[in-house]
Amino acid sequence: MTNITKAVWDILINDISIRKDLARGIVNVRALAKYIRDNYGINSSVDGIISAIRRFEKDSTITENFTTVKEALKGAKVTTKTN
Question: Alpha helices of 1-83 — where are they, by DSSP H?
Fold first, then answer.
C-alpha cells in the first residue's frame, strides 16, 4: 500500500459520514478527492486520490476487519514458552 493510499484510507476510515455516503453511492468521487487534497494536505494528483478511494470501496471490508482486530488486540499480552 502506498503512502497516498494509506493516507486516503485513514481519512475514509475515520470519517464515518464519508464512508456511509460512499456505500450509498451518493458521493461524487472527483469532488471528494479534491476535498481530501485541499483539506487534508495530501500531496498528490486528484487522479491518484480517486484511485485510492476506488480501491477503498473494494477493500473496505478487509480494512474494517483488520481495524477491528487491531483494536481488539491492542492491549493483548503475548507470551511464549520454550521447552
Answer: 3-14, 16-24, 29-40, 46-73
CB 29 within 8 A of CB 57: no
Low-confidence winner among 3-7, 11-15, 16-20, 70-74 (lowest mean pLDDT): 70-74
pLDDT of residue 8: 94
CA distances for 76 relative to 33, 60, 71, 80, 83, angstroms = 37, 25, 10, 13, 23
Domains in the chain: boundaries: 3-64
pLDDT, tens only, 44-83: 999 999 999 998 865 555 556 677 778 888 888 888 888 7
Q: Which residues contact 37 (CB under 8 A, 6 or more apart)?
A: 44, 46, 49
d(CA 16, CA 65): 15
